[in-house]
Amino acid sequence: MPLRFRRILDTPELCDVAREAASDVAAALRQLGVSENATMAMEDIDAIRSKAADAAERAAPGSPDDGIVWERVVGQARSDSRGSWAFHTFLVLATLIAGVAVLTDSAILVVGAMVVGPEFGPISAIAVGLVLGMRSIVLGAIKLLGVGFLLAVAVTALVALVGRAAGWVTAEAVAADRPLTAFIWTPDRWSFVVALLAGAAGVLSLTASRSNALVGVFISVTTVPAAGNLALALAVWVPHEIGGAVAQLAVNLLGMVIAGCLVLAIQRVYSRLNGAAWSPGRQRSRPSAEGA
Predict the structure, then answer these.
(1) Which terminus of the chain is more exposed, N or C, with fewer CB under 10 A?
(2) How far is CA 122 from CA 69, 146, 281, in A?
(3) Which residues belong to the signal peptide in this entry (predicted)?
(4) Tens digits of residue pLDDT in 33-78
């Protein structure tokens, strides 16, 4: 699908380009110094009928569905590596829902926690930062994930302690046989496989701008639920589930980052093979006045 550039100054200037050529066009505009005197904005065009547009699509390297707008990917990664009140609130709420899912052995509530959990944003940001060599994004996303999960587990554990005092939460309930949610704290080889698949699907949805709720559910399959199980096990002290939940959380985070890095690296190679060699990790100097 084509993209439209807007040069925001006194008088907006519009330029429609094929999606797979958008990054190279943006790089050329920056090289000419446009971004120093104006703001460039990009927006998707849902539908367009034009012989010129069709010719531009044919001339652009690669397929529109495979075209990666690196400015958007990096911009999203920068945004996802910075903390916000909304991120921490959603993560706390998701972990609380996961805690209730553990107590009630409810697969439906596990899915609910997956939907609410926002953790894939910083996970994908880590992958983007590693592949493109952007250290600040990597460090920011790691810090956000660490602080976010510590806060979510702490709040959920405190709520569980209150529930324990009221008689709602017991060690027996947490340690009981849970056929529908036992997988949350019992990682195995398939946990890593699922994490790899989830990370690949998530990064593809990010780069192809095809993110949707179903992808979000798949990505969060055992991250937030493991955090909820960890919080309850700490609150009522079920040691064997503490280690299992931590391991499940670590396996999923590591697997998704590895898969994200592999997918992004393959996409960069594919872009270069199709003639779109530019990427955000490559700095371009501004041309001299004589060459401009």
Answers:
(1) C
(2) 19, 10, 19
(3) none
(4) 666 666 667 666 666 667 666 666 666 665 566 667 778 888 889 9
Contacts of 238 (CB under 8 A, 6+ apart): 171, 174, 175, 232
Residue 270 has pLDDT above 70, yes or no: yes
Average pLDDT estimate for 273-277? 59
Of 77, 13, 69, the closest CA to residue 40 belongs to 13
Long-range contacts from 262-267, C-beta under 8 angstroms, 24+ separation: 262/200, 263/127, 263/199, 263/200, 263/203, 263/204, 263/207, 264/127, 264/128, 264/131, 264/132, 264/203, 264/207, 265/131, 267/66, 267/68, 267/207
